[in-house]
Design brief:
The protein is an alpha/beta fold. The chain has helices at residues 2-35, 50-64, 75-84, 96-104, 155-166, 170-174, 184-192, 241-252, 254-262, and strands at 40-46, 67-73, 90-92, 114-119, 121-126, 146-149, 177-181, 198-202, 215-218, 228-234. The chain contains nine helices and ten strands. The N and C termini lie far apart (90 Å).
Length: 267
């Protein structure tokens, strides 16, 4: 009887030891998994760059096993967020001025700033151009309803103001501006929904599916236009600085440029 009890006790001890071993192994693996978490990047991007940036980060993420989150907004708005704390890893606004401003303030690693593609302003009007707008001067015409980007919030707003000033139209168009928007994406929607007669957006947005057969484009003459460059840089104190630099390099690579080109950008 005693022998049977001893065997039973030994069996229970062995079973308990097995369960304890399995528990320890499982926890060890969980700890290792936590130490090997998938790296994560946060990109701050101008709202008007959403199409190419989405495709670029998806490609880079797949190729490098990294999770990438993107926060879109007006370039001025994103710069303001950087001023409150160096959140994020990569900064790519709608015009390079904002990257250099961030660099001067110590929010961006200036050595990482990389020129990518051109950003060209155009006039967007409802499909068929019902107001017969043929150039920048026509935006000052009687009865023309304009939407313009917010000067303090988005790159296209600041550029539009400069274009009007350069063309001597700043005062003449002032009465026609009925609405200002914090992002260029909202300007696009105002035109598509026929809420305004014209606005100034980026040329590449014409290739968006939302734009097809819903708006017409009028080029701004070379003398009046102000063509900008899109640049990207790595945010100081990025926890993944080397991976962030690799992403910026990919944006400039031949593979990256094919994506920019697909969405209407020029070198």
């Amino acid at each position: 009887m005693m022998k049977k009890r001893s065997c039973h006790a030994l069996f229970l001890i062995v079973v308990a030891a097995i369960f304890i071993t399995l528990y320890l192994v499982t926890n060890s693996r969980s700890a290792l998994d936590k130490n090997k978490q998938t790296p994560e990047l946060l990109v701050l991007s101008g709202a008007g760059l959403i199409k190419p940036v989405e495709e670029i980060v998806k490609k880079f993420s797949t190729n490098n096993g990294v999770v990438i989150k993107v926060k879109y907004g007006g370039s001025g708005e994103l710069l303001g967020q950087l001023s409150l704390g160096n959140m994020g890893d990569v900064f790519i606004p709608g015009a390079e001025k904002y990257v250099y401003d961030a660099g001067k303030n110590g929010w961006i690693d200036e050595s990482s700033i990389t020129k990518l593609v051109k950003h060209i302003p155009v006039i967007a009007v409802p499909f068929g151009n019902p107001k017969k707008i043929n150039g920048i001067e026509d935006l000052a015409g009687e009865g023309v309803v304009l939407a313009i980007g917010d000067v303090d919030a988005c790159a296209i707003g600041r550029i539009s103001k400069k274009i009007f000033k350069k063309s001597g139209l700043q005062q003449k168009v002032a009465g026609n501006i009925k609405v200002s928007a914090p992002t260029v994406n909202q300007l696009l929607m105002y035109v598509i929904m026929n809420q305004v007669d014209a606005t100034i957006i980026w040329e590449d947005m014409v290739s968006w599916s939302e734009s097809r057969q819903k708006l017409s484009v009028v080029e701004i003459d070379q003398k009046s236009n102000i063509i900008k460059t899109i640049s990207a840089g790595v945010i100081n104190n990025s926890p993944n600085a080397e991976l962030s630099k690799k992403l910026v390099t990919f944006m400039k690579s031949p593979e990256g440029y094919e994506i920019w080109k697909k969405w209407g950008f020029k070198p």
